[in-house]
Design a protein that fits this description.
With about 200 residues, the chain is mainly beta. The chain folds into 2 domains: about 130 residues, Trypsin-like serine proteases (Thrombin, subunit H, Beta Barrel), CATH 2.40.10.10; about 60 residues, Thrombin, subunit H (Beta Barrel). It contains 3 helices and 14 strands. The strands form 2 sheets. It has an 8-stranded antiparallel beta sheet, with no helix packed on it. It has a 6-stranded antiparallel barrel with strand order 2-3-4-7-6-5. A hairpin with a 6-residue loop joins strand 13 and strand 14. The protein is globular and about 40 Å long.
């Protein structure tokens, strides 16, 4: 699927056509959603991003069933409560009392994934390859969920699940949920078309 057709299929939270068309950049972060570390019992960690005051989006598979803590850039850990969880989409919304929002627009016209690296935040280059209907399977090959997804190339590693894929205007295009086991640099993000329903569900 071409980049322009990909954009046409997305909702307002997704990338602008110009950003997709120039999906080759990277570098230091001038803005975008604030990143947090989501810490679950059993030394499990994931990435999350702030969508509004006290609200964070992350991946559902890293949450477990015990208490959660969200650690922001100031190093402070805050208790978090799961407001909504959608296992089929592998997304969750957390309520984190006392956590401020810090959305800003990015300074350059490219597509990247915002990642936590060495205690800071970097914008890693990302190239959107295609949009697909991802099928999540168990070890025996049984399909247990389907979700709208983006296949991309980006330097994803363990703990990056939940990181946002963003464009030059700071809008979220997807949420990283997996990396390929067989192909280095290949990763998958839940398409942002799934976010509005999750964020506004009652």
């Amino acid at each position: 699927m071409s980049a322009r057709r990909l954009v046409a299929a997305c909702v307002p939270l997704a990338l602008a056509a110009a950003a997709i068309g120039n999906a080759t950049g990277g570098g230091a972060v001038a803005g975008g959603p604030a990143l947090v570390t989501v810490e679950a019992p059993g030394e499990r960690t994931a990435t999350g991003f702030v969508v509004s005051d006290e609200h964070v989006v992350t991946v559902a598979h890293a949450l477990g069933t015990g208490g959660l803590q969200v650690r922001s850039a100031d190093g402070v850990g805050r208790r978090a409560v799961v407001l909504r969880r959608n296992p089929a989409l592998d997304l969750a919304v957390l309520l984190v009392p006392g956590l401020p929002a810090a959305p800003r627009s990015l300074a350059h016209g490219s597509v990247h994934v915002l990642l936590r690296r060495d205690g800071g935040r970097v914008a890693a280059r990302a190239v959107v390859r295609r949009r697909l209907d991802a099928r999540v399977r168990t070890a025996d090959g049984r399909v247990i969920a389907r979700r709208p997804a983006l296949e991309l190339t980006a330097p994803i590693r363990a703990g990056d699940s939940g990181a946002p894929l963003v464009g030059a205007d700071g809008r979220v295009a997807g949420v990283i949920f997996a990396r390929s086991r067989g192909r280095a640099g290949l990763a998958y993000a839940v398409d942002a078309s799934a976010l509005p329903h999750l964020l506004h569900a009652r």
